Amino acid sequence: MEVSNEIKEEIRKTQTELKNAIRVHQIWVARLQEDVNNVHYKSKVIQAEKDIIDIGQTQKLVLERLRRELELYQQRLKTRNKQINIEIDNRLIAQQIRDHQLKFRSKNRTLLKPSVLSEIHLKTENDDLKENISDPENEIKLNGKENHKDGFLRNFSQLPNTLQNNRNNFNQNKSSREGSPSGSSTENKAERKNLQERNIKLCVELRKLETRAATLKASLDDHNAEKRELLTEQIQTQRNLQKLLDFISQFKETSVSVRSTSVSESSDASKSNDE
User: Fold this and answer.
1) The organism sits in which domain of life (predicted)?
2) Residue 129 and residue 90 share a domain
3) Which of 123-137, 162-176, 194-208, 255-269 has the lowest mean pLDDT?
């Protein structure tokens, strides 16, 4: 903290005035000791004492202004430190989020979010379930063919009609089997395309997050440098404040000693006058 030039000038002015007033008082006291009955010297001594007291009151006002200015500076410094601590906490939280994302990326080695991974897992389970369901259907069809073959042997007389029916059933099954793989392959292609698009979006989002994290890290470094500078300034302010307090205490001791000296000299002069 830098003390205002006005207060510095007032402190220097009051110190100079106090020194001059003390010298004048000492001169008149010395003359009064030489000529105790001189009324003019007595009035000058009393006037010099009043001047010293007035200067002391002025110095008290200056020191009070200095104290208020120091209190205001400390309040501003506390407010600034509080704001800086809030900003540091926010940046630390952002840094922790970035570290968590990097850790998640290194563990899973994928650019997909957990929700997308769970969706893919569910689709895989559904495909497995469809395959498990299709196996019993194939077994039922095979059993049906065997039963049909047995019926064909038992009903040899109905061979032409049965053969025609089997051919029709075979053609229907073939057409249905040829149609189903094409549909499933189309769905798989569309699903793969959607996953690729999501993957691209996630890559772009991850790059944005990495850029933002780098920006936050740079801001955090700048903020740490600013905080170190602020701490240095605060330490220097505390030192200046301590110097001012030492000066105030020394000034008070000097004022008390001057007053005691002037009072003792006045009492000596009055005693000699009475004698």
Assistant:
1) Eukaryota
2) no
3) 123-137
Residue 37's SS3 state is coil
Q: State how far the Cα of 197 lies from the Cα of 40, in Å rounded to an integer.
A: 106
Cα-Cα-Cα-Cα torsion 132, 137, 140, 141, nearest 10 degrees, comes to: -130
**Residue type at position 99:** D
Total Cβ atoms within 10 A of residue 232: 10
In a domain, 20, yes or no: yes
Per the structure, the complete domain to which residue 135 belongs is given by 111-209
Q: Contact, 18 vs 52, CB < 8 A?
A: yes
- The domain total for the chain is 2
Q: Determine the length of the chain.
A: 275
Q: How far apart are the C-alpha atoms of 64 and 274, rounded to whole Å?
A: 41
215 lies in some domain: no
Most confident of 57-66, 207-216, 219-228: 57-66
- Encode pLDDT of 61-98 as tens digits: 888 888 888 888 888 888 888 888 888 878 887 777 77
The pair of structure tokens assigned to 49 is: 């004492």
User: Rounded to an integer, what distance in angstroms lies between the CA atom of residue 92 and that of residue 114?
Assistant: 24
pTM score of the predicted model: 0.34
Q: Are 42 and 32 in contact (CB under 8 A)?
A: yes
